[in-house]
Each structure stands twice: as C-alpha cells, then as structure tokens.
Amino acid sequence: MSFPPRRFTLDEYHRLLEGAVLRRGSRTELLDGVLLERGERTERQAQAITLLHRRLGQLLPPGVSLRADEPLTVSQDTELTPALAVVPSDVAARAVRHPATATLVVEVADTDLERVRKGHVRAWARAGVHELWLVNLVDRRIDVLWKPDAEAFQDAMVLATPTTLTSRSLPGVTLAVGALFGL
Fold first, then answer.
1. How far is residue 96's CA from residue 100's CA, in Å, rounded to a whole number?
2. Is residue 9 part of a domain?
3. Which of 62, 86, 116, 145 could potentially form a cystine with 132 if both were Cys, beta carbons 3.0 to 4.6 Å apart?
4. Residues 33-53: what's their mean pLDDT?
C-alpha cells in the first residue's frame, strides 16, 4: 500500500522548524507544500556567492537591501532560500516573517541546476520577482529572466563571457560575466 505525499502549509513548516523535527538553519525549503532538502553548497558556489554579494553590495542603489541565504515566503505553501535577494528596504524592515517577493533573486547552481530550474523558476515568477539570475557554474553562463506572470517569466536571455550583465530592474547594477567564473 502506498500513500500520497504529505503536503505542508507554511505554518506547519514553521512549526517543524520551531520544534525538534527540523532545526533552524537546516538546508530545507518548502515548495508547493513539499519539504525539499537543499544539497550542500560546493566551494565553487560559495566563491561565486561571495563575489556576487560583494559586487552587488557595492552597486545597489539606496532603498534596497541585499539578503544572503535568507528565506522568501512566496505563498502559503512555498518558502525558498535563494543565494541572494534584493528587496526594498521598507519590506525588509517591516516583514513579520520573510519578504514575499524581491526585485532581484540570484540562484547559483552547480550540481543542482535541474532542481533550481524545475521548481524554483516557476515559484519566483508566481511571486512576482522582477528579475531572476540563474548563475550556471557548470556551463559558465547566466540565464537572466524578467517579466514574470502567473507561471513563468516572459523574457529571457543567456549571457556568457566576455559580456556584461546589466540589471533591468536595478539601475546602475552591471557585472562582468567572466569575473564570476574566474575569467
């Protein structure tokens, strides 16, 4: 006999985190009611995230906050933790829980690229994230997605070296793509 998977609400997920079932800081996420374990971050991911964090921190305009490895509560059954997220400062300051959307979300994928593409992209579009950067460390490229609607992003482009990435939602934010990959 098999049972259908158990789906959790956001409140149930938070109770699991507050209790002894899941510990705070565990690498779990809630996607469409399903608990997912995020893989361990590779050294290559850690280096890319550190570089992006430093660069974005230098370039961000006033009125926004940079969050690193902090959850975004997308819906009543989805809470994801991107590598980096840029949110309006007033949202970060007044959030009782976590912000529900972001101006920019950055996902840095190494061996977990398909996991990110499968569920996260759709969730970020549904959340109304203005711009999504998928940093693909395997193929040394950045997929940039924007114009979210209910299920997907309507526009996308793929950037590789030696191009420069210019944010569509954050004026003045530019990044040499090759710098992320040590080129």
1. 11
2. no
3. 145
4. 91
